[in-house]
Design brief:
Elements lengths: L4 H7 L6 H12 L8 H17 L4 H11 L18 E6 L2 E7 L4 E3 L2 E3 L2 H9 L5 H4 L11
Length: about 140
């Protein structure tokens, strides 16, 4: 069911008690857990676990966020959205679940390498699709979700 130990650990975080989650927090952050509710603690732990495994935000994204915090208007060209390597996407289509793994260069679907999500979406549906739209990464109007 799970492709990796980390995927299983993240999926099962919500099943653990608060004392266990607080201990886990201390092992990942080297400090006592803040006074979060369980859902927030689970979300932040899941992010941290994946961040350590796959890497955090890119320098470009961090710079953009810093500029936004400072109130600077940025005129940076928006790149096409791409999930970080290691992300697994799932889409149910025609009663079947389809899983895609994001690679550093391209995507893997059914043990085959593809350059784009659109190619995979087209293969699955038999018609042309925006891969980001098909896998739920953008809204119908093309906005990143």
């Amino acid at each position: 069911m799970y492709n990796s130990k980390l995927e299983k650990e993240v999926a099962e975080l919500g099943k653990h008690s608060m004392p266990y989650l607080k201990d886990l927090w201390e092992s990942y952050f080297d400090e006592s857990a803040p006074l979060f509710n369980k859902a927030t603690l689970v979300n932040k732990l899941a992010y941290r676990m994946q961040e350590l495994e796959f890497g955090g935000l890119s320098t470009e994204t961090l710079n953009m966020l810093r500029d936004l915090i400072k109130g600077k208007k940025t005129k940076r060209r928006v790149k096409a959205f791409r999930p970080v390597a290691g992300t697994r996407l799932m889409r149910e289509y025609d009663g079947k679940e389809h899983y895609v793994t994001v690679l550093s260069k391209g995507f893997e679907y059914q043990e085959e390498h593809y350059k784009s999500l659109s190619a995979i979406a087209t293969l699955i549906t038999g018609t042309r699709w925006s891969g980001n739209a098909f896998f739920g990464l953008t809204s119908r109007k093309g906005r990143i979700l």
